[in-house]
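Issue: ligand-bound run for iron/sulfur cluster - logging full I/O for the record.

Environment: standard queue, default settings, no custom constraints.

Inputs:
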Amino acid sequence: MKVERLHQVSERSSKDIFGMPIIGFLFKNRYALLSYRLLALFLFLYALIYGFLHPSKEENIFTPAVFWSLFWPFFMITTLTTLGNVFCMICPLGFLGKNIQKIGLKLRIPKLLKNPYIGIIFSNILAYWFVLYTFPGLLRIPIVTALFFSVFLLLSLLFFFLFRGMAFCKYICPIGSVNSAFARAGFTWLSTYREECKFCRKPECALSCPYELNPSKFDERNSMANCTLCMECAHACPAVRFEIRGWGSSLVKKISKPLHWEVWVYILMVAVITFAMRFHHGLGRTQFAEYTPWVVAGKFLQDKLNIPDWIDMTGFMAMIIALCLVLLIVFLSVRLASSAGQLPMRKVFLEIGYAFAPLMIVGALAHVWEFFFLRYYSDFLNGLSQAFGLGFHIEPLARRGDPWLLVFNVFPPIAALWSIYILKKRVDLLNPARKNLFFLFSAMLPAAYLALWAFSFTAGLLFRSGHGH
Ligand code: SF4
Ligand code: SF4
Ligand code: SF4
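Outputs:
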């Protein structure tokens, strides 16, 4: 009875997106959601087929543009830091998966595969970032892009057919766990009207969730881990709400069951993306690039082991050194904070780890917005023109070196300061002994991030070399 009353928009909270005109329709209406998913699926399949039919870079800019520019990373990073995990909401694999799972075998996934680190380490870091740094340009070859995504498509279909609970998304997908963790940086939150749930005998919201989650517990746990905003629960019960809350609001509240993998996502991604990129592409384009440890070690290995030039040992070493450095900083930070605060290291790691969430994802906005103007926008539209024979060609919106592009450098310091702000709030929640000292040690990673940004930004301005490694 009570649940029924919520059908009326006037009864919904003023912050509930589902109750808002137009935007509520865009996020909840089945046909609206279906139309985005069909469009994404069409683009995905067309780009794959086009990649096989036109395998070389010279004849195909469409396939790499669809996968590596506007859709991912631009769309993914801008939406994760605002609307949340809407990338998964429209993902073609998730869309196919939900439907295949219904007719599949619905087996329980073996314990060995029930591990989000498979997606984070193997599918993401090794299958993508390692390849990107070590074999530069390889993934931008249309046929390689098409093969790469075909493997993921086939693997996902197999998993969706065999196992229940959208196991591929939770454990194997290279971006499932990563998106789920970073969605905390956005300003939306899915939950339910608690007063209504008190009277609920049959939680249709949970029963309808293909991911086997229970949205009525999201608030209590301060976690919506693995939720892909597919909105099945919202269609099953009107007491589900999708609210606008403060940016990253869940990060400053107590998390009843902190997840190791979420914290590792923040740390590993800041290492392999932010630090490694600043080493390889930031400092690698300055006049003292030759003296950096990754260039020295990379060249040494390349010569000593007779490694051919198409394997970039400098990029590989930048990634390895970035990983080692970040892990060392985190270890020292947790170790010192733990003894200052007289708390177990594990607890300190989980509590302060959530403060690192903005570092990579908000800092990455600098890169994706700059590249939107330099390449993504024109590549995507020119790719569409090529693939559908539209006969137009557009120029990029900006040229490398245009001074106004520097404006996007505002994002890394915002990321670091936001991280420090979250840290302050989390330290207050934890209330350790010698609080100030604890806070100081806990802030080592954001401080190192800020220092690296300031150094590479200044070096890029004053000592640019004009060529990179
Ligand atoms: S987890 Fe991966 S496969 Fe699943 S919906 Fe998200 S991006 Fe798609
Ligand atoms: S949201 Fe779920 S638990 Fe709450 S009333 Fe609806 S079905 Fe029941
Ligand atoms: S909780 Fe709701 S929106 Fe999230 S995955 Fe489950 S059904 Fe989809």
